[in-house]
Amino acid sequence: GAFASALAQAAEPKPLPPKASVGEIVKESKASDWRPLDLENTLYMDLPGGRVVIELAPPFAPNHAANIKALAREHYFDGLVILRSQDNFVVQWGDPDERNPRPTKDAKMKLKAEFTAPIKNDRHFTRLKDVDGYAPQVGHSNGFPVGRDPKKGETWLAHCYAMVGVGRDNEADSGGGTALYVVTGQAPRHLDRNITVVGRVVSGMPLLSSMPRGPAPMGFYDKPEMQVPITAFRVAADVPASERSNFEVMRTDSPTYQKVVEAQRNRGGPWNVVAAGHVDLCNAPIPVREQGNAQK
User: Fold this and answer.
1) What is the C-alpha to C-alpha distance for residues 8 and 11, in angstroms, rounded to an integer?
2) What is the DSSP secondary-structure string of 19-85?
3) Phi and psi for 246 in degrees, rounded to 5?
4) Under DSSP, is residue 144 helix (H, G, I), strand (E, B) or coil?
5) CB atoms within 10 A of CB 223
6) Beta strands in 158-267 (DSSP E)
7) Which residues make Cβ contacts (< 8 Å) with residue 42, sequence separation at least 6?
């Protein structure tokens, strides 16, 4: 009886000691832990329901980033639509008429693929200590989740939730940015290094992830009335200051962000019974806040 009782007590998990939560760490952060969005590399996609704010990552896909800004500046996307919402996968926007697509002016329809970038392009990499099944090393670069292969000298943006990529056909060099998508489901990391990723949504994901799922194959909307119009698609630097959305992103090379990661790797009690001791690259979201909401 005593042995069985001792065994039962040993099998019972001990409560984890309390630890600071992500919210508490963010609340205690300093102004130096944050950086404002670069207006020249920020896009605003205005929809009937509100605004989606996208931050581009030129070091990883410089030609596509420049081309998407060129498309925005010639108002290519204005009046086009959200045309696809596939459950647990992506929301995509662009021209629904594939046979007679809207022509570009100065921007290009197709570019050479930028699936990876030279490691030397990335001067802000902070490695996660956790192992990853899709890359020899993973971590964050200036607020973006990235994988890298030091032996090949390559780095790339990872397909985490809210990351924005460039639609293409079977040919690797068949995309240019006229069709864009955002990841709205479980991170499809098998797409890493198979498609050009250009940035991530920093605000407005609920507008996209809540889009009704399309009934046609791959989540396409099969009736025009289902498509959601894009009111405007602009580079933030071109928008009057009074109309801008002013967000700042936590610096992923800051000690405070490392505390955020650790808070998710090993969560404290009393609710948590087991600390995972591991965090997935795509399960370490980067805090974003509106400027002016900083704690005093």
Assistant:
1) 5
2) ---HHHHHHT--GGGEEE--GGGEEEEEETTEEEEEEE-TTTSHHHHHHHHHHHHTTSSTT-EEEEE
3) -105, 95
4) strand
5) 9
6) 163-166, 180-183, 197-203, 228-229, 232-235, 247-250
7) 53, 54, 55, 56, 235, 236, 237
Binned average pLDDT, 10 residues per bin, the chain of 296 residues: 64 82 96 97 98 98 98 98 98 94 96 98 97 98 98 98 98 97 98 98 98 97 97 98 97 97 94 94 96 55
* Nearest residue to 40 (alpha-carbon basis) of 217, 234, 259: 234
Q: Which residues contact 241 (CB under 8 A, 6 or more apart)?
A: none
**Cα radius of gyration (the chain):** 21
Q: Where are the beta strands (DSSP E) in 109-170?
A: 117-118, 125-127, 137-141, 144-149, 154-157, 163-166
C-alpha span between 234 and 17 (Å, rounded): 48
Please state, as a whole number, how many other Cβ atoms lie within 10 Å of the Cβ of residue 149: 15
Do residues 94 and 180 lie in contact, with contact meaning Cβ atoms separated by under 8 Å? yes
pTM > 0.90: yes
Q: What is the DSSP letter of 120?
A: G
Burial class (CB in 10 A: 0-12, 13-18, 19+), 17: exposed
SS3 assignment, position 257: helix
